[in-house]
Design goal:
There is one protein chain. The protein has a seven-stranded antiparallel sheet. A two-stranded antiparallel sheet has the order 3-6. It has helices at residues 17-22, 39-44, 92-105, 133-154, and strands at residues 10-15, 23-33, 48-49, 54-58, 61-65, 68-69, 86-89, 108-117, 120-130. It has four helices and nine strands, in the order E-H-E-H-E-E-E-E-E-H-E-E-H. The chain is α+β, with helices and mostly antiparallel strands and 160 residues long. The longest helix has 22 residues, at 133-154.
């Protein structure tokens, strides 16, 4: 029997909703993230923005750029720069494979979500391909059609 006071294993901090609108996500990968000082406390307070962030591969390391972590309110002089580059933790073989995909097939690495997993901060990294305008329109049309079908089913077949 499981303990009564056991917390859920995964708690989402932030999601990059714009990423799924702008890109086709071909593959998702869970990575760790290297944080300093009071950044974890700021994340627990929900002070992060993934909207304009991306990931580059430099010198065999994954580095997330453009991610904004708000400085901790009760922090001190040791608060870090909110937009600094942060290193992602992944196996060397995974980094090499992602680098090849980006070079050969023109994919982009985009952070999809940030969450706590068993007390550690994890970043879900997406191997993405950019959408064209007509792809975005097709997705919107599918979404609208699905909504109208659900509405019709909910109202016992009476279509408005």
């Amino acid at each position: 029997m499981a303990p009564v006071n056991q917390r859920p294993a995964i708690k989402t901090i932030a999601t990059n909703r714009e990423a799924r609108h702008e890109y086709f996500v071909m593959e998702a990968l869970e990575t760790g993230i290297e944080l300093k000082g009071t950044e974890v406390k700021s994340l627990r307070a929900g002070g992060v923005n993934l909207k304009d962030s991306w990931v580059d591969i430099e010198e065999g390391e994954l580095r997330v750029k453009g991610m904004h972590i708000t400085p901790y309110d009760h922090g001190n002089i040791f608060n870090e720069d909110p937009r600094r580059e942060r290193r992602l933790l992944a196996h060397k073989s995974e980094i090499r494979r992602l680098g090849q995909q980006c070079k050969l097939q023109g994919y982009t690495l985009i952070p999809l979500s940030l969450y706590f997993k068993h007390g550690r901060v994890k970043l879900e990294l997406g191997l993405c391909k950019g959408k064209k305008l007509y792809d975005k329109r097709a997705d919107a049309a599918k979404r609208d059609a699905r909504r109208s079908i659900e509405r019709a089913v909910k109202s016992n077949g009476q279509y408005y």
